[in-house]
Amino acid sequence: MLQQVFISLNEGFLKTLEIFILTLLGAFPLGLIICFGSMSHFLPLRYLVKFIVWCVRGTPLMLQLLIIYYGPGLILGNNWWGNGASGRFTAAVVAFIINYACYFSEIYRGGIEGVPRGQYEAGQVLGMTKSQIFFRVIFLQVIKRIIPPMGNEIITLVKDTSLARVIAVYEIIWSGQAFIKSHGIIWPLFFTGVYYLLFSGILTLLLGRLEKKLEYFRV
Amino acid sequence: MSVLEVKNISKSFGETQVLKNVGFTLEKGEVIAIIGSSGSGKTTLLRCLNFLETPDSGQIIVNGEVLFDASAGTKFSEREIRKKRLHFGLVFQSFNLFPQYTALANVKLACELLAKEREDYREKKKLILQEIYEKACDLLRQVGLANKMHLYPHQLSGGQQQRVAIARALALSPDVLCFDEPTSALDPELTGEVLKVMRSLAEKNTTMVIVTHEMQFAREVADKVIFMDDGVIVETGTPDEVFGNPKQERTIRFLERYSELQARDNTEQHL
Questions:
Q1: Which residues of A touch B114 (CB under 8 A)?
Q2: CB contact, 8 Å: A182 with chain B?
Q3: With CB atoms counted within 10 Å of each terminal CB, which end of chain A scores lower, N or C?
């Protein structure tokens, strides 16, 4: 029995982990693109991007999951996610990526705008190119500035993955809850909390280590 | 031939005209001090020289070569502007050292990046980097920081940071070294060490344009003093002329106000 619970929870956790990793892989770069859009000098683009960010940050992630999964089929009459578990999983990951990219974009923007103008100017008067200034001077300062708020978002994502169950993605909470129906026991559901705690604990340690690594300088 | 000729520079930000037909010349080895109250356009003038701002009109000529001519109306590529900038060095009021690099790396960085563009970089990489390293060490020694070169900016005092910034600006051997109120962000007890370095540069005949509020320093070190007010050059002359025998009403008032402030500061310090 115990073994059966762990096998099932591990499977669910694997799904959770997949959503987590794929979301980060997608949202890190997409967030940067959105960030550049929201800082664009081309006003229509900037306002469009800001409007999208407002919509995404201003509505519940659960609602976004439902709209992204059911929207194409029910409104456009074409369920491009495909049927079955893999379709639901893809839709969930897409929803997570869009949602988190919008949050990340604001963090990037804060990080980039937080670097004083003088850093760019110092690079310029030293005859450096724009890309040299960005990669050799600005980039690391941005990274250092965004680690704490990024850490927050990343830890939040660990727990947000559980929302995927509203479109029936079999993540860990789903696996735990299944034991109530099948065996009439609730402890597996409660025990999923331990997985979350361990995972976010490991992440906290890793983020702390990264922060420590960049402690040799101050911005 | 003058190292630097500035002719009729004007610059507006929106409705406000910050510089009105400003012009001066600078000979090799000369030091010009630009004085004037805040908002008189001194800093903007330096920023124009360093291509951080583009003047609306006027010319900038270095060693006879026209670097900038507003009437020509050409837009320069990034590459061209970079090349033009190398004639000038700029030391900022707020130092602007790169925080993630040591003092030594701050001084070396731009030279190393620039060296990569040399055709013989691949073959002579080791030699070139060694030269850059030695030059940087030498410069840091000159500003009295030989024993601090492996420290990061936050581990240095303001005065030490500004001295690193001076070494960094010197590393590219600019024709004209510009200072934008280099001691204004420093605690009073730290200005001395920075002024001392600048004085020794002047003794070595470094061509400099110094925007400063340190009147005593300007008087001692400068060959020429420019007093600016409201975007125009009101008075130019030797330090003795401008400080000792100012001719313009505005210069007189500025210097009076300044010595009053100075006197008040002194009494406050004594209290």
A1: 127
A2: no
A3: N
pLDDT digits (tens, 9 = 90+) for B129-138: 999 999 999 9
Average confidence (pLDDT) per 10 residues, chain B, 271 residues = 91 93 94 92 94 93 90 83 93 95 96 90 90 95 94 95 96 95 91 94 94 92 94 94 92 90 76 64
Mutation to test the B interface, candidates A119, A120, A125, most B Cβ within 10 Å:
A125
Nearest by CB to residue A127, choosing from B82, B98, B153, is B82
Strand ranges in B166-220 using DSSP code E only, listed in sequence order:
176-180, 208-211
User: Any CB–CB contact under 8 A between A125 and chain B?
Assistant: yes
pTM, full prediction: 0.86
What pLDDT does residue B269 have? 67
**d(C-alpha A139, C-alpha A125), whole Å:** 18
Cβ–Cβ gap B88/A121 under 8 Å: no
Closest listed residue to residue A60, CA positions, set A158, A166, A146: A166
List of residues 6+ apart from B270 with CB closer than 8 A: none
Looking at the DSSP bridge assignments, the partners of residue B17 are: B12
According to the model, what pLDDT value does residue B180 have?
Answer: 95
One-character DSSP codes across B88-109: EEEE-TT----TTS-HHHHHHH
Query: What residues have CB less than 8 Å from A199, skipping those under 6 apart?
Result: A13, A17, A158
pLDDT (tens digit per residue) in A129-148: 999 999 999 999 999 999 99
Q: Which DSSP symbol is given to B140?
A: H
d(CA B13, CA A190): 64
CB-CB contact of A165 with A173 (8 Å): yes
Find which of B96, B168, B170 to mutate to test the A interface (most A CBs within 10 Å of its CB): B96
Distance in angstroms (rounded) separating the CA atoms of residues B75 and B57: 14
Burial category of B133 from C-beta neighbours within 10 Å (exposed 0-12, middle 13-18, buried 19 and up): middle
Q: pLDDT band for position A2 (50/70/90)? A: confident
The owner of tokens 């940050």 is A57
- Residue B180 burial (CB < 10 Å; 0-12/13-18/19+)? buried
Distance between CA atoms of residues B224 and B221, nearest Å: 9
